[in-house]
C-alpha cells in the first residue's frame, strides 16, 4: 500500500507574515514596490501586542523582495509563510479563499512507492491529477550549457525555475535527482536514475507562471495605489512613460529599468532620453552627482553604441561617430575622473604563464557547491588554461602606451603632491619658529609685568602704613586744636569780669568827686592799693589791647 505524504500548498510560497506597528496603508505602500499584491490581511497574535499582516503576492519571487525590503526598514519583521508552517492554519482562518477548495493540500507519492505503483494506475486518473497538463517525457539526459540562459535559471535564484531548490523544496523531496559533472567542466548532465520515464514525475509539478512575467512588469505607485506597467508594451516614443515616471515620483531603479529595456530592444535614442530625463529630474530633487554614476555609465554606453552605428560601411570612424565617442568619454570622466584612459587604450594584463606553471582546472563543482572527484577509473587530465590578451594579427604583445601614460601622470601627480607637502612643511616650520619667538617675548613681558606688580604691591603696603600714621597725626592735631579753643574761651570769659570791676570802681569814684566828696573819693582811691591798681591797669591794658 502506498504511503501518501501531504505537502505544503502552492499558495504558501506566495505569502509573507509582516510583524510591525504600522498601519495597513503604510504596509501596502511599502511592499507595493516588491511586486503585485493580491491582498493584505491584518490579524492579531495572542502572544504579542504588535499588529501582523498576511500579504499575498502574485509571484513567488516577490516574497524574496519583500524579505529584503523588511531588512532595509526598521520596525518591520518579514517572514515567509513557508518558513513558519505553524502559521498556515492561522492564515487559512484569516483568509477565506485559502480555506476553500483552492487551498487543498496536494498529495505527493514517495520514491519507493513510485517504483512499484507509478505505472500501474489508469491514464485518465493520471491526467486528472495533473490538472489537465500534459508534459513531454524526458527520455534523454538534459545537457545544460553553463553559458546559456537555462543554466542560469537552474542554478540562479529565480523562484519560477522548476529546478530551483530554494522555492520547490516539497517537489524536490519527492523526486531524487542526481547530478553528474564531467571532469572537463564543459557540460553538466542532469538525470533521474530512479524513474525510467520522467512523465510521471513531472506530472506532479503545478503549472508555473511564465519566466519573464515578473521581469517585464514595472510597479508604479501613484496616489498610494500600485499600478503595474507591462514593459513589453512600451512605445517607441518614450514621452508617455517619462511623464508617468515623473508623476509617480519614481526612484532611480524604475528609471534605469525602463532605460535598460529600451536599450535591450535596440532603441538607443529612447534609452538616452529616459536616462537623461532621470538625471535632470533627480538633480532638481537634490540628488548629488556622485549618486548618478550608474546613469552616466548608461549614457556613456549608449553613446558608444551610437558611435559604432555611425561608422562608415568600411568600419572607419566618421565625424558623427567621433562626436558620440567623445561624449561617451565625457560621461566616463564624470564617473572616473578626467585622468581615465581613452576608450581605445589596451588594459594592463599580466604576461601569460608557461604551461608548466599554469593552474589546471581539475575540480568540478555541482549545483549545491560540493566537489566531486573525476568520473572514471583513469580520467584524462584537464587541459591547461592560460590567459593572454594579444592584439589581432600580432604574435608578441604590443607596448601598452595608454597604461604607461597613466602611470606617468600618476607619478607626476605624486611628485606635485610631494612638492606641495614639502612646501607646506617648510611653511609650518617657519610658523613654528615664529610662534616660539612670540612665546619667548610674551614670557619676558609677562615676567616684567609680574615684577612691576610686586613693586606696586610693596608701595601699596608702604602707603597704607603712612596713611595710618597721617590719620593718627590728624587726630592729635584735632585734639590740640579743641583744647586751645577751650582755653581761649575760658580766658575771654575771665577778661570780661576784671574789666567790669575796674569800670565800676572808677564810676563810683567819679560820682563821689562830683558830689564834693573829695575825701571819700580819695579814700576810695587809696583803698585801691598800688599793686591792685597796677594789676587793674595791666589787666585793663591787656583787655583793651587789640
Overall average pLDDT: 69
Strand order of the largest sheet: 3-4-2-5
**CATH architecture field of the domain at 217-336:** Alpha Horseshoe
Q: Report the major sheet.
A: 4 strands, antiparallel
Low-confidence stretches: 1-6, 101-214, 343-395, 528-546
> Shape from CA axes?
elongated
The fraction of residues in strands falls at 5-15%
Tell me the CATH superfamily of the domain at 217-336. Tetratricopeptide repeat domain
Helix content: 40-55%
Q: Which CATH C-level class of the domain at 217-336 is it? A: Mainly Alpha
Provide the gyration radius in Å: 58 Å
**Which secondary-structure class do the elements indicate?**
alpha+beta
CATH topology of the domain at 217-336: Serine Threonine Protein Phosphatase 5, Tetratricopeptide repeat
List SSEs in N-to-C order.
EEHEEHEHHEHHEHHEEHEEHHHHHEEHHH
Please count the helical segments.
17
Q: How many individual β-strands?
A: 13
Keywords: Coiled coil
Biased composition (Basic and acidic residues): 534-546
Protein name: RRM domain-containing protein
Region (Disordered): 136-169, 525-546
Written account of the structure:
This is RRM domain-containing protein. Residues 432-494 form a coiled coil. Keywords: Coiled coil. Residues 136-169, 525-546 are annotated as: Disordered. Residues 534-546 have a biased composition (Basic and acidic residues). The protein has 546 residues and is α+β, with helices and mostly antiparallel strands. Among the domains are: 4-103, RRM (RNA recognition motif) domain (Alpha-Beta Plaits, 2-Layer Sandwich); 121-202, no CATH class; 217-336, Serine Threonine Protein Phosphatase 5, Tetratricopeptide repeat (Alpha Horseshoe). Helix content is 51%, strand content 11%. The chain contains 17 helices and 13 strands. It has helices spanning 24-31, 61-72, 88-94, 96-99, 111-117, 123-129, 149-155, 169-174, 199-202, 239-248, 252-265, 268-284, 293-309, 319-336, 401-514, 518-527, 530-544; strands at 4-6, 15-20, 37-44, 51-57, 77-80, 107-109, 142-144, 178-181, 188-191, 217-222, 225-230, 364-365, 371-372. The chain has a four-stranded antiparallel beta sheet with strand order 3-4-2-5, covered by helices on one side. A three-stranded antiparallel beta sheet has the order 7-9-8, with no helix packed on it. Helix 12 packs antiparallel against helix 13 and helix 13 (293-309) runs antiparallel to helix 14 (319-336). It is elongated and about 180 Å long. Residues 1-6, 101-214, 343-395 and 528-546 have low confidence and may be disordered.
